[in-house]
Specification:
Blueprint lengths: L2 H28 L2 H6 L1 H5 L5 H7 L3 H22 L8 H4 L7 H33 L17 H17 L5 H8 L1 H4 L15 H4 L17 E2 L6 E2 L30 E5 L2 H12 L3 E9 L7 E8 L3 E6 L4 H13 L4 E4 L3 H11 L6 E3 H7 L7 H9 L19 H12 L1 H14 L10 H13 L1 E4 L14 H4 L3 H21 L3 H4 L2 H10 L4 H7 L5 H5 L1 H13 L5 H33 L3 H4 L1 H20 L15 E2 L5 E2 L13 E3 L2 E5 L24 H15 L24 H4 L3
Parallel strand pairs: 3-6, 4-7, 7-8, 9-13
Antiparallel strand pairs: 1-2, 4-5, 5-6, 10-11, 12-13
Helix pairs in contact: 1-5, 12-13, 15-18, 15-19, 16-18, 21-23, 21-26, 27-29
C-alpha cells in the first residue's frame, strides 16, 4: 500500500467518525441548557481539539454546528458584556468587537476571573452580614444573638427543610426556596436585622444620649413631699374610672380595609402638631412602637404607630425625637382617652425613656388574651382570630432605623395598630359576657384593666454598672471557670461596659457574651492568639487588640481575689441543677396523676422549659428585670410573641416571678444587661398579679431560699477585697481605657 492509499483510507475512516462528532454537537445545541451543562464534561471529550478540530472543520456536518454554537456563544457574551446591570464593571466586561476565537477566549478567561473575584467578595460580605443578622435558624451567632426555637418549632423547621430538599429535585424548586425559605437557609432577608451601612441616627439627627453610670431622672413626674420618690399620675386615679361596661346591641363594625384607610407618615413638626390636635379630639386610639437596641446602649425608639377608627399614622421618632414629648405627652396622660396596646410592657418604659411620656387608661390586648385564655396570646394570633388577617412577620426583626421606609415595612407597622380598636371591641364584649372563675375573683374586664394598670405603673431605670454586674451573665455559673478565667470575665465585662457607654453601642455589639466567655475560657495572652480565637469580626476588639490583651494579662494576675466567687458560682450551679431535677420529678408526677401514667412523655418539653426558667429566675432575682438586647442578645425591633409579651425577634420567656420594687404604688423596673443565649429574653415581664398557687408558690419559696442563702462577695478588678458598692461615677473615657 502506497502512502497515498494509506492517507485515503485514513481520510475515509475519519469521514465515518465525523458524523458521530457532529451528532454530539447537534445533541448539545438541541437539549435544554441545564441538562447540557450537567453533561458538559462527558460531552466535551467527544469534540476533537487542536489540529483535529481544524481538520473536521472541512466537513459541513461538523462545521455548521460549530458555527451555530460560536454565534450563540458570541451573542451571549455580548449580552453579558453590555448588560446594564453590570454598568459598574462595564469596562472590564465589555465584549471586544471583531476579534478572533483566541482573543475571545482570553477575554472570557479574564471575565471569569473578575466574576470569581466578585463572587468571593460577595461571599465574604454575606458571611459577615449573616454573622451580624443571624439568619440561620438555631445557630449561635458570634455577635451573641441566637434564634431560639422551641421543640415544636425545631421539628417543623426540620420538616420544612426536608420538604424543601425533596422539592429541590424539581426544575424550578430552587427559586421557591430562595423566595420563601430565606430565614432557614441563611439568605439575607428583604430587610435584615442589622444593616451596617446605615448611619447611626444619633449622628444623623444629633440625638443626645446620657449613658453615664447615674440613675435615670424622671424629670416629667412630680416628686413626693420629702423628694425621695416620683409620683406616677396613675396613683391618683382608680381602675374603675377607665372601664367601659356598655354592651351594644349591634355587632362592632369591622375596621376599614388597610388599603382604603387614610394614612399619614409624620416626618415634619407641622404634621405632628396636626396629629396632636386630632388626638385631643378623640376618646380612644391604638399605639405601638418599633425599637432598635443593637446599635445603642439604652436603645432607640424608631417609630410610633397610632391608629384611630378612620386613620393610621406613623411618626418618625428618630427625626422628631425632641418634638414627640412636647406635643403628645398630655394626650397620652389624659385618663379620659383610652389607649389600646398589645404587650405594652416594653413600650411603656421606652415612652418614658425617650419622650417623657407616661400613660394613663391603658387596655392591653395581650393581658386580655390571657384572661380570656385564648389558644395563643400573640398579636399575630389575635389578628387572625378576630380579623381574619394573616400578618406578615418577616419584618418583625427588621432594622427599623432604615430610611426611607420601604412600603412593606410601612404596611407591617400599620397592621400593628390598624386593627387594635376593633379587637378591643370584640374582647371587651367577650370579657363582659365571661363568667367569673370563682366568686372571689374580679370580673374579667376589671382584671384586664388591673393588669394593664400594673403595666403602666412601671418606671424606667437605666442600667447601672456595679462591681458584681458580671456575675449576672447567663451561662457563667455553668461555665465552670477557675479563678483566672473568672477574673478575665470581670475585666472584659467592665471594659465592654465602659466602651459601650462612651460609644453609645450595645454591649452585644462591642463584645458578645458568647465571645467574651470563649476568650475567658481560652485565656489568650498575645495579640496573635486573641486574633486566631476570633471566629468573626468584632471591630472594637480588632481596633484595640493590644488593650484587650493587657486587660487579660492583668486580670490573670489578680485571680487570687476570685477564688471565693468561683466557689459560690459552683454552689449556685449545683443548687440550680438540684432544683431543676426536683421540678422535673414533680412535673412528671403531676402528669402521671392526670394522664394515668402516660403524661411523662407529653410533659418532657414542659420540664425542660421549667428547668431553663428556674435558671433564669435565679438570675432575675439578682439583677432585676432585664432589658432586651444587652450582652449580645439585642433586638432590632420589638414585636409580639406567643405570650403576648414584647419579644425581640426570638422566643421570649416571661416569668410571673419577675422581681420588681414597689415604691408607694409605682413599680420601679430595674433594667439590667442580660447575657448569653437567653439573656435578652428575660426582659418582657411586668409587675403581674399572681393568679396561680400551689406549684408556683412552692417554686417561689425555693427560689427565695436559694437567694437568701447565696451571697456572692465581689473582689474588685484590682484584687482588693471590698464590699459591693454601686459605681456611680462617670464611666472611664475610652482614651483612658485603651492606654496600656
Amino acid at each position: 500500500m502506497t502512502q497515498n492509499d494509506a492517507n485515503m483510507v485514513e481520510t475515509e475512516e475519519e469521514e465515518e467518525e465525523s458524523p458521530k462528532e457532529s451528532q454530539s454537537l447537534h445533541t448539545l445545541t438541541a437539549t435544554q441548557l441545564s441538562s447540557s451543562v450537567s453533561n458538559l464534561s462527558a460531552s466535551s471529550r467527544a469534540i476533537p481539539s487542536n489540529k483535529d478540530f481544524h481538520f473536521y472543520c472541512n466537513f459541513d456536518e461538523f462545521k455548521i454546528p460549530i458555527q451555530e454554537i460560536a454565534a450563540k456563544s458570541q451573542s451571549l457574551l455580548e449580552s453579558i458584556g453590555s448588560s446594564s446591570s453590570n454598568h459598574i464593571f462595564k469596562d472590564k466586561l465589555q465584549f471586544p468587537a471583531d476579534v478572533d476565537i483566541d482573543e475571545a477566549y482570553d477575554w472570557l478567561v479574564n471575565v471569569n476571573d473578575e466574576i470569581l473575584e466578585r463572587f468571593d467578595a460577595s461571599i465574604d460580605d454575606f458571611k459577615r452580614a449573616r454573622e451580624e443578622t443571624g439568619r440561620v435558624a438555631g445557630v449561635d451567632r458570634e455577635d451573641g444573638f441566637q434564634l431560639v426555637l422551641g421543640k415544636k418549632n425545631k421539628k417543623s423547621m426540620i420538616k420544612t427543610m426536608s420538604d424543601d430538599s425533596v422539592s429541590c429535585a424539581g426544575g424550578d424548586s430552587g427559586v421557591k426556596v430562595a423566595e420563601n425559605k430565606k430565614w432557614i437557609l441563611g439568605n439575607k432577608a428583604k430587610v435584615p436585622f442589622h444593616i451596617p451601612t446605615i448611619r447611626k441616627p444619633q449622628e444623623e439627627h444629633n440625638i443626645l444620649v446620657y449613658n453615664s453610670n447615674k440613675a435615670f431622672d424622671h424629670v416629667w413626674l412630680e416628686r413626693s413631699e420629702d423628694g425621695m420618690r416620683v409620683i406616677h399620675p396613675l396613683e391618683r386615679l382608680s381602675v374603675l374610672d377607665f372601664m367601659d361596661t356598655s354592651i351594644g346591641d349591634v355587632e362592632p363594625a369591622p375596621p376599614l380595609p388597610i388599603e382604603s384607610t387614610a394614612f399619614k407618615l409624620v416626618e415634619e413638626v407641622k404634621d405632628l402638631k396636626e396629629l396632636a390636635a386630632k388626638l385631643r379630639g378623640a376618646n380612644e386610639f391604638a399605639v405601638d412602637l418599633e425599637h432598635n437596641q443593637y446599635r445603642s446602649f439604652q436603645g432607640l425608639t424608631c417609630l410610633m404607630q397610632i391608629s384611630s377608627r378612620t386613620e393610621d399614622f406613623i411618626i418618625d421618632t428618630l427625626k422628631l425625637r425632641i418634638h414627640v414629648g412636647p406635643y403628645l405627652r398630655e394626650v397620652f396622660k389624659d385618663p379620659a382617652k383610652r389607649k389600646v396596646m398589645h404587650g405594652a410592657d416594653r413600650d411603656i418604659v421606652w415612652l418614658q425613656r425617650d419622650f417623657g411620656i407616661y400613660i394613663c387608661n391603658l387596655f392591653d390586648t395581650g393581658q386580655a388574651s390571657r384572661v380570656l385564655k385564648l389558644e395563643r396570646n400573640s398579636l399575630e394570633h389575635l389578628l387572625h382570630h378576630f380579623c381574619g388577617v394573616t400578618a406578615k412577620k418577616e419584618y418583625q426583626n427588621a432594622d427599623w432605623r432604615l430610611r426611607p421606609l420601604p412600603d412593606e415595612m410601612i404596611r407591617y407597622a400599620r397592621e400593628d395598630t390598624h386593627y387594635l380598636l376593633h379587637i378591643y371591641d370584640l374582647m371587651r364584649d367577650l370579657l363582659l359576657s365571661k363568667p367569673n372563675d370563682n366568686e372571689n375573683a374580679d370580673p374579667p374586664l376589671l382584671e384586664v384593666y388591673k393588669r394593664s394598670y400594673d403595666v403602666c405603673m412601671q418606671l424606667y431605670e437605666k442600667e447601672l454598672f456595679t462591681e458584681n454586674s458580671y456575675l449576672n451573665m447567663y451561662g457563667l455559673p455553668s461555665a465552670g471557670f477557675n479563678a483566672q478565667q473568672l477574673a478575665i470575665v470581670a475585666g472584659l465585662y467592665e471594659w465592654r461596659d465602659a466602651v459601650a457607654r462612651a460609644e453609645d453601642e450595645s454591649t452585644g455589639y462591642i463584645l458578645p457574651n458568647k465571645t467574651l466567655l470563649e476568650i475567658a475560657k481560652e485565656m489568650p495572652v498575645t495579640s496573635s492568639q486573641l486574633r486566631r480565637l476570633m471566629k468573626s469580626k468584632h471591630s472594637y476588639i480588632e481596633r484595640h487588640l493590644s488593650s484587650v490583651v493587657s486587660i487579660i494579662r492583668h486580670s490573670m494576675q489578680t485571680s487570687a481575689a476570685f477564688e471565693a466567687a468561683v466557689q459560690h458560682l459552683k454552689e449556685r450551679h449545683m443548687e440550680t441543677k438540684a432544683l431543676q431535677e426536683e421540678t422535673e420529678v414533680n412535673n412528671g408526677s403531676e402528669a402521671q396523676s392526670i394522664h394515668g401514667g402516660n403524661g411523662m412523655n407529653s410533659n418532657v418539653a414542659a420540664c425542660h422549659e421549667t428547668s431553663a426558667q428556674l435558671e433564669k429566675g435565679l438570675l432575675k432575682q439578682r439583677s432585676g428585670v432585664v432589658e432586651l438586647g444587652r450582652g449580645g442578645q439585642g433586638s432590632s425591633a420589638k414585636h409580639h410573641g406567643e405570650n403576648g409579651e414584647v419579644n425581640t425577634g426570638f422566643s421570649s420567656y416571661i416569668s410571673d416571678t419577675s422581681p420588681t420594687a414597689k415604691v408607694a404604688g409605682a413599680t420601679v423596673e430595674v433594667l439590667k444587661k442580660p447575657s448569653g443565649a437567653f439573656g435578652a429574653l428575660l426582659g418582657g415581664a411586668a409587675a403581674k398579679r399572681k393568679l396561680d398557687s400551689g406549684k408556683k408558690v412552692k417554686e417561689e419559696i425555693k427560689l427565695e431560699k436559694i437567694r437568701s442563702s447565696v451571697n456572692l462577695p465581689f473582689h474588685s478588678f484590682m484584687g482588693i477585697n471590698e464590699p459591693p458598692k454601686l459605681a456611680v461615677e462617670e464611666p472611664v473615657g475610652v482614651s483612658e481605657i485603651f492606654t496600656s
